[in-house]
Amino acid sequence: MLILTRRSNEAITIGDDIEIEVLGIDGDQVKLGIKAPKQVEIHRKEIYLTIQEANNEAAHGTFSENALTQLKNLKR
User: Fold this and answer.
1) N or C: which end of the chain has fewer CB within 10 A?
2) pLDDT over threshold 70, residue 65
3) What is the pLDDT of residue 72?
4) What are phi and psi for residue 11, nearest 5 degrees?
5) pTM of the prediction?
6) Reduced 3-state DSSP string for the chain
């Protein structure tokens, strides 16, 4: 894992076309801005894990209503 220190309005780049900028810091929350090509999917980790779980369940025929409800209730 690479660990970097950034302040407000500072950024990091990933490859040639992804930039992550620190837009603000408020207490223990950090607001990030992410610039990436439209074909790059960007999700909060908890959403990504829920999507992965739903995909796994669907692939194995065990898709539950609970996973569907979780996906519907996620807020962006």
Assistant:
1) N
2) no
3) 75
4) -135, 170
5) 0.70
6) CCCCCCCCCCEEEECCCEEEEEEEEECCEEEEEEECCCCCCCCCHHHHHHHHHHHHHHHCCCCCHHHHHHHHHCCC
Predicted confidence (pLDDT) per residue in 10-38, tens digit = 999 999 999 999 999 999 999 999 999 99
**Distance between CA 40 and CA 18 in Å, rounded?**
9
What residue has token string 């607001």?
Answer: 31
Backbone torsions φ then ψ of 12, nearest 5 degrees:
-130, 155
CA distance 6 to 21: 9
Residue 56: per-residue pLDDT:
84
- The CA angle 66-67-70, to the nearest 5 degrees, is 85
Classify strands 29-35 and 11-14 as parallel, antiparallel or unpaired: unpaired
- pLDDT for 26: 94
